[in-house]
Known about the structure:
The protein is an alpha+beta fold. It folds into 2 domains: about 10-175, no CATH class; about 190-250, ChaB (Rna Polymerase Sigma Factor, Chain: A, Orthogonal Bundle). The chain is built from 9 helices and 8 strands. The strands form 2 sheets. A 6-stranded antiparallel β-sheet has the order 3-4-2-5-1-6, with helices on both faces. Strands 7-8 form a two-stranded antiparallel sheet.
Amino acid sequence: xxxxxxxxxxxxxxxxxxxxxxxxxxxxxxxxxxxxxxxxxxxxxxxxxxxxxxxxxxxxxxxxxxxxxxxxxxxxxxxxxxxxxxxxxxxxxxxxxxxxxxxxxxxxxxxxxxxxxxxxxxxxxxxxxxxxxxxxxxxxxxxxxxxxxxxxxxxxxxxxxxxxxxxxxxxxxxxxxxxxxxxxxxxxxxxxxxxxxxxxxxxxxxxxxxxxxxxxxxxxxxxxxxxxxxxxxxxxxxxxxxxxxxxxxxxxxxx
Length: 255
């Protein structure tokens, strides 16, 4: 049987140019990092489509994350290699293209403080992952300036190997944290208590039920947690609107 990839730490780095991101993703994949353990964020992907022209605050493009293939032709071929892409509005940064599991994690946080008008933006989100506040602030500033943030989840015993890989590919401000990005459930969701706190906090009990039903149905068909999470959020967005506290609880009229 093939060896199971056991991700235990997350290494992050800033890259100045999009072509560096394309290169480092291919190098990570060649070293055996699964595509659903690589995340990218940036605002200045070269594209003929104006990002600001089709999203607004709190919106995610097309109501949720989409497969990288949909965006590969818009923002560069490397996005087609990753598991999902979304566009989010983040306070103090603006519209951000987020690819990989960071997109799903941000999607879960999008109706909380990160999207609030007085929110602390990306810094507050990154610090919840265990990143030092000063490093998170540097990342936010450099994203604002048009640079790119890459995160890769790796086994503990290969941390040094992948730090060197990111450095040799042009990565700067390299940081390692001793955890990976939250997934919504540890496999199938047997009850709302299985949902991660970030997801659960933004869903009413009925919305939790809708999310879990869709998540489990997709997971049973595909064994793909990332796709299951995307479609779980889509099911919530189709049936609910946010209330004044950022909780998806208001049933849409006619649904």
